[in-house]
Amino acid sequence: MTSTLTIKDLRVSVEDKLILKGLNLEVKQGEIHAIMGPNGSGKSTLAYSLMGHPKYEVEGGEVWFKGQNILELTPDERARLGLFLAFQYPTAIPGVSMANFLRTAVNAIKGGEANGNGKGQTGVPVAEFRKMMIEKMELLQMDKSFARRYLNDGFSGGEKKRAEILQMAMLEPEIAILDETDSGLDIDALRIVSEGVNTLAGPHMGILVITHYQRILNYIQPDFVHVMFNGQIVASGGAELARQLEEEGYDRYVKEAAGANG
62 lies in which domain range? Predict the structure, then answer.
């Protein structure tokens, strides 16, 4: 059965300011959706709200996934249900290797928990985990030494984003949200990260790409493109809509919104 993320009339505030103002969207497994919009339109607010960041206060609406309104769930419950968020600015954690971080994440999401006596973990056996990690790194054309490095510590922008894609590969979510994954990447890093996303995309994973620019969509072909402005989806279309936005910008939607409010 195909899983669907259904967002209905979502309203979210940040520090008492309403940012999302009745947003509606539906993303199915196997589909690639792109949300584009100018800075301040609420794109990242949507991403963090979907994963339950406490800074973002839900004022109304519903978000349904696999028969549950996920707004009632904690962030870790949402992740175990099959949602994933790749951050725009991944955090560095000195002293924690990529491999240890990934094993902890895999055990947490796929049902393993630390033993109460603190003497190890249940969940995926070490040998099985290492085999899976090596397979995913080879799939993404990543050097094995990457796993020994401290998480994002001293990483370039491209390496941080590749680490996020590796996490996505290991956790195998049903719906993945990529929050401005192209931010701060040069052309070569953008191509490498996009190839990783394309490798993982398929019938079992729906992808929501949130971006300001069209350039990442030259590499990741979306099935649907949505324009977000002033906290709402104001237009939707196919890949051609992204090319139109690249040529014309967002002025049309800004003016239409101003006219509607005037």
Answer: 4-261
pLDDT at 253: 80
Q: What pLDDT, on the 0 to 100 scale, is given for residue 252?
A: 84
Per-residue HEC secondary structure of 245-260 comes to HHHHCCHHHHHHHHHH
Reported as type and span, the H/E element at residue 127 is helix 126-139
Backbone angles phi and psi of 153, in degrees to 5: -80, 110
Using alpha carbons, select from 215, 206, 236 the residue that is nearest to residue 224: 236
Q: Which residues of the chain have pLDDT under 70?
A: 111-122, 258-262
**SS3 (DSSP) at 212:** coil
Total domains present in the chain: 1
**CB-CB contact of 102 with 109 (8 Å):** no
Question: Rounded to two decimals, what is the model's pTM?
Answer: 0.89
Q: What is the largest CA-CA distance in the chain?
A: 64
Q: Which residue's structure tokens are 């995926």?
A: 124
CATH number of domain containing 173: 3.40.50.300
Q: How far is CA 211 from the centre of its chain?
A: 11
How many CA atoms, within 13 angstroms, populate the side-chain half-sphere of residue 159? 15
